[in-house]
Amino acid sequence: MSEIISTDKAPKPMGLYPHARRVGNLLFLSGIGPRNAQTDEIPGLALDKHGQFHSFDFEAQCHSVFNNVKNVLEASGSSWDKLVDVTVFLVDMKRDFHTYNRIYAEYFKDNQPCRTTVSVNSLPSAIAIELKCIATID
Fold first, then answer.
1. Could you tell me the pTM of the whole model?
2. How far is CA 68 from the centre of its chain?
């Protein structure tokens, strides 16, 4: 048995896929980025009229992506402490890995899921980070 889960507390998916899918006692989250669920804006990013970066705050994107993941977990009947695997996609590993690693350690002091960090050329929007997660549900 499987259950598709979507929530308005996380940014709308950019394609035809749910926020999460429950299969048995496992919860699989689709890629979740830092976009604001209400405004669709990317925290910490301002573009000029030509679409060029005017300002960029990677820390703001990290905090926002963790908040979005937490919201999907809770809407699915799971929680942050039930994460068992996190795959991180960064568009600029050299620039952002150390910042991500520092902020990640703040959020995962008690729960330490498995983690893989991958560098990618780009993501579907101007975001700099995306997480794909697996959690358990009781």
1. 0.93
2. 6
